[in-house]
Every structure is written in C-alpha cells, then in structure tokens.
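User: Can you model how zinc ion sits in this protein?
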Amino acid sequence: MGGLSVLLALRRVWPGRSSVHPDLEKLIVLQTHDVEAKRLRDELVALPKLVAGLETKLKAVEGQRAFVLDLIAKEEALRRRLESDVKDQQMKIEKGRKKIDQATTTAMVTAFEHEIAFAQGEIGKREDSELESMERSEALEAQRSLADEALATAKETLARERVRAADTVAADKVLLAGLEEKRAALRPQVGETALSNYDRIAKGKGTAISEGINQKCTACQMMVRPQRWNDLRDRDHDDEMMTCESCGRLLYYDPARDAPQKKTVPVESIGASIIRSLRS
Ligand SMILES: [Zn+2]
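Assistant: Here's the modeled complex, given as structure tokens:
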C-alpha cells in the first residue's frame, strides 16, 4: 500500500506529470508486495520455531521441578532413616538400663552407663541431622512452589502461543496467496528489461528500489551527488531509470515526501544556499 500512496502523492503534487518512469511506478508497487510477502514467509518460518522454543523451555522447567522433587524425596528418606536409627539407639538405651538393673558389679554398671551415654550421643547427632534436613526441606519447598509457578506459566504460555501461531499461520497463508496473485498480475505489466533488473538487484540486495530523500538514498544512506540528485528530481518519465551509485538500487524521488522535510532542515550550508539562489 505504501507504493500506491506514494504514487497518489506524486500525482497530487504534479498533476498531469509524473517524474516516475511508468515501469518504476509498477515496480514500486511490486516491491511493497515482495517485501510484505517476504515478511509473511519469514513469519511462517519463525512461528513454528517460536513454539518449538517454548516446548523446549517447558521441558526444561519440568526438568528443574523434577530435580527439586527428587531432592525433597531424598531429604524425606534421609529423615526416615535417621528416625529409625534413633529408635534403634533408644532400644539400646532401654536394654542398657535393664542390664544395669541386673548388673552385679560396679564395673559392669559403669560399662553399661557408657553404652547408654554413647547411644544418647548418637541420638543427639541424628536429631541435629534431622533438624538440618528439615531446614533444607523448607528451602526446597520454597523452590518447589517457584517451580510450580514456573511450570504453570510455561504451560499457559505454550498453549496460548500455539493457538496464536496457528491462527497467524492460517491468516498469513491467505495473505500470501493474495499477494502472489497480485504479483502474478503485476509482473507481466512491467517491461522485460526493467523487471529483470529489478529481480537481479532484489536477489542481491533484498530490495531493488529505493526512495531518494534529502539527497540521500534511503536504502544505503549514502549521499547522491548534486548533479545526479538534480537529474533525479527533474527527470521525465521517458528517461532511463536512475540507480544509486553506492548500492545499485533503482532510485525514485517523491516531491511530496521530500519537500516538507527540506523545510525543516535548520541550517543550510552557505555554499548550498548560493548554489540554490543561482539556480532559482
Ligand atoms: Zn543506495
């Protein structure tokens, strides 16, 4: 649509006269179709990749969550072992007390008391370990709830983007088919040489046509030499198409877009203003 509005603007400014070669007029429109078609094709390639990326991310989040759950399970198993150890030690203590009751010498009593004290020490160590394990579990539970949130978000995002991608792909395919029709109708209307030039430049550069604004090629940003700029501005539509000396694209000039911008240029070099006053 950009190309068409440009042409309408050209006709508005210079009624009855177009500074643009008739083939170039069509090529400007063709380029808008080609650029849009490329955008759609790129999007058709990018969207499945985007969805695949989200699937990979979901798997990674699931993996992280499974890792945290595994650590939680290991801490729980550790505490069960510790508790069973504590029970064993408590049984030893009970046995020790019975042995003390049945002891016949002071030496035996002292030995059993040692056994009991040792078992109590072992219980104390395990209770400390249990406490440490519970602290780790608490931290892991916090990680689990973060992992749960991340998983829910990843699932939601994937589901949403899958639908959006499918809708966009379907819409893009329709738009692309429409553009292909327009291109197929337009291309035969362009002169053979101009069309093959266009195709050759577009193949190498991505786009074949560039607008000249403020004496610059808008595609490569290089200045157009003053004489060539004047040629571009004053040309008749019967003239040969002009190319940018820097990038080789076909140049066109749109007075409707260029003129207002020139007025906003705050400072004009003295040299340029002299040249301008001599010309006018
Ligand atoms: Zn250029």
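A couple of observations from the model: The domain at 45-184 is CATH 1.10.287.620 (Helix Hairpins). Strands lie at 209-213, 216-217, 242-243, 250-253.
User: Helpful, thanks.
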